[in-house]
Design a protein that fits this description.
Structural class of chain A: alpha+beta
CATH topology of chain A: Thiol Ester Dehydrase, Chain A
Oligomer: homotetramer
Largest interface: A-B, 15 and 15 residues
Radius of gyration of chain A: 16 Å
Strand content of chain A: 25-35%
Largest sheet of chain A: 6 strands, mixed
Order of helices and strands of chain A: EHEEEEHE
CATH class of chain A: Alpha Beta
Chain lengths: 157, 157, 157, 157
């Protein structure tokens, strides 16, 4: 059975408003824009994390990451001027990679519009080769989000 | 083992050129734009199909389809002014849905930049509810692309 | 002498944050995106106006407008993650057309990034031909923005 | 009297096809995308110029330019899947700046959709300050486009 996500599983939320140019010839948000909404969620999630890091006295994380996978399941339409809630969490962390999960819902109705996920790989800033994630990163994610799963390298994901 | 796609598996190809606004703050094509490139492939694939339909004397297909899923695996960077080959095929057809598969490669080098897929559902133009695909559609796809797989409703996909 | 705009001339302001895909191959906001930022200003200006209309008991304005002209003067760069202030006002109203003016400034520094304007024409919703603006529209703009200029049809603009 | 442009005044033309995501909530090309179409014209104009430069044995021009002004006059709508002709020319060259002019027309009908222009300034690659344009640039533009006007610094433009 597929794992069904619910907003209750998420601690981080940002709101965006659908703009005229994000709506396509069928008068609904173009499918590609959901990847952009999800990225807004990721940056604000990370911003939030860093500020909590700063509150603990540690420095910004200095991550350089590549997106290696993105997927979206479209459940309903979003329309011009809709306010959308973008929920973001980190579902799992492995040695050098981690996975964002998202729900996008229509704010006015609570209708789920889409779910999605993205897998990112931490790389060495100079060589661009995969590199073990800093422990500080994992620690700050775990501190923020109790449900994150730590996967060993041998696990498949 | 994962199914590895190769350009040799595809009959349909379109070329696009990367534009300045498609490149992001890291000077590579933004991840969301690959869904747009894939859609160019889908429309040109369908245009190509319809013209062969017209050659057989039949009318345009009148499909109304919804995208219900998209995914992209990012393998390498594409940069400003790169010419990219977008390969498109229909991998399978079910009762009311079908699946596009894509390879995106850098034209100059033949390097594979990304692979992706999208699942679309045929709907009734008035009710927006899933509806059996016209046989003409399946026939024209099969005539164009020998490798398309016809799935029964009971198969999982 | 050219008329120099200043934020002090504006009553309406919205904030936006620059996103990764809005930055181009030169790592600055792509020139086309300023038209999008200006449009955010226009919609929020109009939303603000309508709510004040509603407070007066009148109905939404039912305007159908076409953009017939846009221009931007670029003064400085905006970069990823910058918060920008979009100032919007209606500079003049004629029989069937009116003109938005904008300043875009970097919130953190107050540096002026761009100025711009757009001319819109009110049209009949059915024929799409220019049509006299409702007096309610002019009245609500004047009530909000003391400096708007009413131009007669004979004036050139 | 306003100067009316005609395709006959232009030597350079590129074709683009309107894509689904370029069409907005009103089912016409979003006003911001015309700046993108014009930029496609500019890059292809410049590419064309450089190849003629190369044919003369000279090196690429090494220009670093900033866009300081853009404007568009919208005359008619462009719709999804329209093929558009983007005409581009350099109208004038001054000491450190030059001006592109454009016509955008619907290919199938020859209807004029928009006209536009952009002013660009040549800058020193290190200091980003305005710098005299290379003579090779002016020469190659004049060789390509007989009608380009050379303006002295004192002329207003």
């Amino acid at each position: 059975m597929k794992n069904i996500l619910s907003p209750a599983d998420f601690r981080h939320k940002v709101e965006i408003r659908v703009r005229t140019w994000e709506v396509d010839w069928e008068r609904v948000v173009h499918n590609s824009n959901f990847l952009r909404y999800m990225e807004i969620g990721r940056f604000e999630y990370k911003r939030n994390l860093e500020s909590s890091l700063n509150a603990c006295g540690s420095s910004p994380d200095g991550l350089k990451v590549f997106v290696v996978h993105n997927s979206v399941d479209y459940l309903a339409f979003a329309k011009f001027d809709d306010v959308l809630n973008i929920y973001t969490r980190i579902a799992w962390i492995k040695n050098s990679s981690f996975c964002f999960e998202h729900i996008i819902e229509q704010s006015a109705t609570g209708n789920m519009i889409a779910t999605g996920k993205g897998i990112l790989v931490n790389v060495n800033p100079l060589t661009n080769l995969p590199e073990k994630l800093h422990e500080k990163f994992s620690e700050s994610v775990i501190a923020y989000d109790k449900n994150v799963v730590l996967l060993s390298d041998k696990s498949k994901a």
